Amino acid sequence: MKKILLSAAVLFSACTVSAQVSVVKEAKSAKSDPEKAAEIILPALNDPTTAADPETWKLAGDFQKSIYDEENMKLYLPGGKADTTKLYSSLAKMFEYYLKCDEVEQAKVQSGELKKAKLRKKIAKDLMAVRPNLTNAGSDAFNAGNHANALKFFGLYCDAVSTPVFSDMDEIKNDTLVPLIANYATIAASSLKDNAAVLKYAKLGKNHKEEGYRALMCMAEVYKSEEAKDSVKWLATIKEGVERFPSQEYFVGNLMDNYIQKGQVKEALAEMDGIIANNPSAYFMYVKGVLQYENKDYDGAIATLQKIIDKNDGFVAEAYSKMGDCFFFPGQTIEEENSKLSMDDPKYAEGEAKVKEYYAKAQPYYEKAKEIAPDNKALWGQFLLRIYWKLNKAEYENLEKELGY
User: Fold this and answer.
1) Cα–Cα dist 32/29, whole Å
2) 55, 111, 148, 154: which one has the fewest Cβ atoms less than 10 Å from its Cβ?
3) Cβ atoms within 10 Å, residue 112
4) For residue range 104-161, what is the model confidence (pLDDT) as tens digits?
5) Residue environment code for 181-204, b if the CB has 16+ CB neighbours within 10 A, otherwise e
């Protein structure tokens, strides 16, 4: 009985192999209709026997190449219009099947089943010819909001640098466009919250001289996220961003915040002076003013912030607001200390006078910030409300209504 069952199993296996071999033959016979042939061969790609034959994958890739070539030709015909969905789909499948063909063939070479690879050279030549269109496919997908496809196409373009099938091709190894495309792949991956892909492509993208900051920003956001939180790598990425792209506010702002949180304001100021020496932008001047404020160097902060106002090239409302802070918060500190005293205590009246003096000095700065940025209430709203409460009840009531309280 066991012998009968074994024979039946062998017979069934032989029939299955025969069926898949038949599928490959049928697909070959239908090659004049590549779309039909591409459908016919699909079962053979999933069968362990035929899928272990590199020729099966080569044939599947050939069908996709024929579909691609036919659609691509329409782009060059007068009045021709290609089906870009079909064009790009066949392009992606061509890469998938040809690369799998090379993988299977190389495995057979490694195992000794084949003496040498015969298909790699032809596959590499065909893929290199169509590779530039991966950037068009990625751009179309990205612009359409299909970030998954954008990542796929941009990723295929960038992956070619390390793909074995192209190992002998200096044109791809030395492709200077890769860092730029890697930035696009990184942005698409970031939109998908695919942290692994962000880190993979950002390592290539950060090397682009103009656009590399995008890759580093996405990388930093990954290291800041709850899913992949790593404060050491985050700080290293931010510092790399400052070094590579000193004009980018994102890196400088984050680095200074980090210094402030760690109480390293003096170190931050020293680094900020170096940055400003190369780029005295309004933003960087503002950051320096904030650091001086944090260091309780109020006179220095006001002097720095005044330069922003004089230059009138951005961050003017913020500068006025921070100048107000230089008086408001010292006054608030006195007010808090004064609240611990009895109103009969002579020091209480003395403290109240100082509070009013500080608030009166802060008032015009906040009012100027309000004039310049009336919609940015965070710069002046609560501060003026507190000042008016202390100095001018009528103004307080008017502002309270304006703020919708």
Assistant:
1) 8
2) 111
3) 7
4) 999 999 999 999 999 999 999 999 999 999 999 999 999 999 999 999 999 999 999 9
5) bbbbbbbbbbbeebbebbbbbbeb
Write down the mean pLDDT value for the chain: 92
pLDDT on residue 76: 85
Least confidently predicted of 80-84, 249-253, 297-301: 80-84
How many residues are recorded in the chain? 405
Supply the pTM of this predicted model. Answer: 0.80
**CA geometry: angle 81, 58, 177, nearest 5 deg:** 60
Ramachandran assignment for 78, one of left (phi > 0), alpha (psi -120 to 50 degrees), beta (any other):
beta
The CA distance from 177 to 200, in Å, is 17
Helix, strand or coil for residue 340? coil
Distance (Å) of CA 106 to CA 53, 60, 100, 128: 11, 18, 10, 19
- Cα separation, 291 vs 307, in Å, equals 15
pLDDT in tens, 33-56: 999 999 999 999 999 989 999 999
- CA nearest neighbour of 81 among 71, 90, 69, 66: 71
In this model, does residue 10 exceed pLDDT 80?
A: no
Q: What is the distance between the alpha carbons of residues 236 and 199, in angstroms, rounded to a whole number?
A: 14
Is residue 153 within 8 A of residue 92, CB to CB? The reply is yes
Q: How many CB atoms lie within 10 A of CB 266?
A: 11
20: helix, strand or coil: helix
User: Which residue carries 């040809």 as its tokens?
Assistant: 98
For residue 7, the one-letter residue type is S
* pLDDT for the residue 103: 96
Residue 378: name the closest of 317, 294, 308, 306 by CA: 317
Ordered alpha helix ranges (H), 295-392: 298-311, 316-338, 346-372, 381-391
- Tens-digit pLDDT profile for residues 319-375: 999 999 999 999 999 999 988 988 888 899 999 999 999 999 999 999 999 999 999
Q: Are 162 and 139 in contact (CB under 8 A)?
A: no
Q: Is the pLDDT of residue 19 over 80?
A: no
Residue carrying structure tokens 């307080």: 396
